[in-house]
Amino acid sequence: MNRLYRSLGALAGLLALSACLVTPGKFESSLDIRADRHFTFAYKGEILALDLNKDALSGLPSDGDDDTPKEGEPEAGPTMLQIAARDEDFSDKDATGGDTEMQAIATALTKEKGFRSARYAGNHKFEIDYAISGTLDHTFLFPFNIDAQILIPFVAAELRGEDRVRVKAPGFANSSDKSQGTGGLGGASDAAAKAMSGTFTLTTDAEIVSQNQEEGAVSTPQGKRIVWTITPLTSDAPAATLRVKN
Q: Residue 224 sits in which domain range?
């Protein structure tokens, strides 16, 4: 569980980098937050690895660059961004290269708590079934995996002050600010953006301070429910602020 929590400073960096690398395909996702801070999050569906323009990766070490760790620094394995630079666009012609590394990422994800299944289906597509419960005493980010070094910043729940939780789902929108990632990698794959289709549902018995779904919340036996329908035309990331118990 601790791997899923990060400080606010680290969160900002993760969102900037990873939004340029992966995007949802067809999916259903839900987040339930109780007033006592207990939460349950789920994501079931596709995750697509974007085709990256290799010219936009000039900030990454090339074969001729000296990326040897300085004295006292730990040696780091390849990040997903570096894998993308090496394999260009994960094309099917590199079935023993890019696909092999994508399979390795899927295998690493299955070892992470919460991943009920993670399968690489080929053609840049992962099929994910993820669910986890816990207590919001730290910021929650879906998800971060140390072994695969893959970042998928679809949903974040951030503590604000003593009694508020701000929920935002930057991965569930095709907003312009999503393209301001490392090395100018914006708009890397129109095809992937057009494939995004799903729903994000927030349920809570806490007070809803604000939210950006124009139809508002509806009452259910479990409390208030807000449903965002996500399409390639969605430009505003789902967002809500809740007041919870201290």
A: 2-68+77-243
